[in-house]
Amino acid sequence: MTTHSQSQIGISDNVVTTGREGFAPEGRGHSSTMGINVGWMWKDLDHLNTRLRSELLLAIKAFIRNHPDAVMDHDPDWLYTKCSCDKSVKIFVCLAKDGSLLGYAPFFVHPSTLSYELFGVSLFEFRIRRYSITGSPLLSTRAMVDDSFLQDLFGQLRGVLERHEVMFGLGVNLDSHFGRFVRQYTDLQKWYQIFPSGKSYCRRLIIMPESFEQYIKELSHNTRKDVRRTLRDLEKNAEIAVSYRVFTAPEDVPEFLSLAQSVSGKTYQRKLLGLGISDNTDTRQNLILAAEKGWLRSYILLCNNEPVAYQHGFLHSGVYYAEQTGYDPSWSGKSVGTIMQIYRIRDLIDIGVAKLDFLYGDNEKKRSLSNSFHQEQNYYFVPRKFPVSGIAYGLRLFNAITGLVGDFMEKNGIKSKIRRFLRARATRDS
């Protein structure tokens, strides 16, 4: 296990105490039967004064910079850029009595729904506010040896969550300390309904080699052959002028969104599912703020000066996060989506990026281009409070039944036929 440096801050003993302040169910605090160490406690950052919040935010940045499990969604600066009138950030920190930072749990709080869906169609939606955390709370090596830290965090959260509020774990690594805790600590079920959102999946990554040629050589024989053929066929086509553009600056954002949306609007994801990139006020503001921080790095592929594919993402602390992708279906025969992926990978290797993260979900293209993965699962943590607990119980039962029907249809090839039909109809010209 890697040893992490402990960030020290000047917090006096009257701030970090060992009193019983209800950080576990039934107000157990630090005197629970689990033998919790009395030398630390979780604190809500909103409940501290301005000076301490400022000091802690600096300590948090040093903490996540040295933590192997930290991702972009742990950066408070990034979370605060996504805030709006109905979206906010809630941060908990675990402090030792000496002022060292032992744990950090940031939540992005936003409107959502518990949705009863059948074949992608919503039959009933119950509005909630979701406290979403990506990956896991970050703990120091001192805190990882004792599950009491996570037990008390969940106890603290239960006291905070209102009747229509739930916690959501996005992309929980099943082999991580937090992933094992969620699956193995059965007492948590007394206070929360814990159930998966969707099926587990492989999160695919590319650990970048020193050169693009080395990357190509490390691909499987069939993938390597397909990539080279695809590039050759398009680049040597005398009738098509191929180029791509990289967008990184704040002033680039309006043009990128306009071009990307022109492609996204043609995809089946947009027409059938309402997904894809949108040029709206919130998106524009988020991308401009990200660009001001130096995080934005998005791409447009042009064929004969016409936008035919886009890749949108962020570069943060040496890791590129591939947020959204899309291509014009009328150019699918030229594999423009694959070509845009390859151009992006080559560009990222050239500028010295350490890792490309394909983020959530899995598909054949991610599998063929990646060289590393781990297993993840999304989880709901619904406090046993009326009415949200009853809605969640019904949703679990509904999902179990529809899951069995879906598995039967998948096994017999029915779902794939339906998908192909719906995609073809959604992308067909009017």
UniProtKB/TrEMBL annotation:
Pfam families: Acetyltransf_6. Gene3D superfamilies: 3.40.630.30. Residues 222-367 form the BioF2-like acetyltransferase domain. This is BioF2-like acetyltransferase domain-containing protein. It comes from Nitrosomonas mobilis.
